[in-house]
Amino acid sequence: MFHALESIEFRDTWVPQPGGLQHEVEHMAIACSYYLEDLDGRELPRRFLDAFAAILAHSNYAPVLDVAARMKARCGRCADTCPVYQVTREKRDIPCERSELLLRVYRRYFTLGGNLRSRLGDTFDLDDAYINRMAEEYYRCTACRRCKLECPLGVDHGLITHLARWILAEVGITPKALVVATREQLDGKTHNTSGIPAPAMMDTCEFLVEDCADEHQLKIDFPVDVAGAEYVFFPAVSDYLLEPDTLMGNAAVMMATGASWTIGTHNFDGINYGLFYSDRLLDRIVSNEVAEVKRLGGRKILIGECGHASRSAKAFVPTFCGGEAAPPVINIMEYTHAQWKAGKLRLKPDVIKQRVTYHDPCNIARSGWITEQPRDILKHICTDFVEMTPNRTENYCCGGGGGTVSIDEIREFRTLIGGKAKADQIRATGAEIVVSPCANCKKQVAEVCQDHDLDVRVCGLHDLILEAIDAPEFMIIPQDAETATTAEET
Ligand code: SF4
Ligand code: SF4
Q1: pTM for this structure?
Q2: Which of 77, 99, 147 to mutate to test the pocket of ligand 1 (most atoms within 8 A of CB)?
């Protein structure tokens, strides 16, 4: 049931609801203090307009803006579907209100009508305050694109958010956390967003091999710099720091299926924050992935459990790296599912006894690309799999999409507002385990659960596959290990 916008009661400022959120959440500071690194405020409006003009000249955003800028419809469907607006009920969080901020600039400065109206008395002029306001508003949107599903005119507010953030980035306004990580990935010594040197990554892999043998009695391997491998592996690099079970599960599947795969030491990070704020950086990051595949003589890009890393590579490797000649991109859940269906991977049924639910990461589910594969596997290995409602293409964002999960300063906004719908969904399932196959979503869903007092385990799909994998030829039999140790000692 949708409401025309005129009939919706707005609040101009958000007020906590009785019996609702536990804490009063302060609004994000309009001074943008945490967005900036040494902002050069000189002639900000002129530089913003120059950047906007350059982007329009060198991209195909203009037709999208032309259509959106002419629309007068205000049916309200986008408001009803936005998880942020559903909580705040603030006019500022209505998707088309937010998009209007950029469209107003577009109309005034980049259309003939706007130019004429300015001569006839339209008083709108872009100034510093307006730019600061855009910076604030465009980071309240998680770019989840849920609103696009319902818009009868197909307006993609997530795309307009992305464009606005790109123009802001070109004048130096971007959340510091995203800038610092991307700078290390593109221009730093380690070439990854977590700043992990290659020897440290290899040490971690050795530790995971030992841990997997001890904890799961399973022999795994992480091949490094193998020339001519079919798959070159790019997980979210933070998995090496935070998600050992996901990585062990990934390696176990590759080993059990006899895959030809490798990790490259020059580039082993699938994270691509360019997807959140700059096509220019998005291009450089996917191009570096392809360069690593070429250096190794590999054939395909295998992305780990990460939604935005998968979408950025799947959608933009062909765009920026040679079209049909570019290496194919596959997400590890697709690989695992295909191998299992082909009978090359055996998984024990009903191994996981707790109630399990599945969170659809927006970047792989919204388009309908990866929705059924993980569910097929979970229904096989779990005794009690339950769905969240809604799910698949209609899923709710975790609340930390669009790169906002990296901004620690807005945790309360992310979890208590952006993530409230997700918390309610999880609570309604009664699940003890939430499978969240994306590095960003894992962090965010775990924080959402903490801040909403939900006692659940948040993990990846391959964490559970690790417990269900049936590969006796790779099992370490404790007796053999004991015998081997004794033989070594004598
Ligand atoms: S993209 Fe998501 S967060 Fe942004 S306006 Fe649309 S529904 Fe709301
Ligand atoms: S952007 Fe689309 S869904 Fe939102 S009010 Fe306009 S027509 Fe309706």
Answers
A1: 0.91
A2: 147
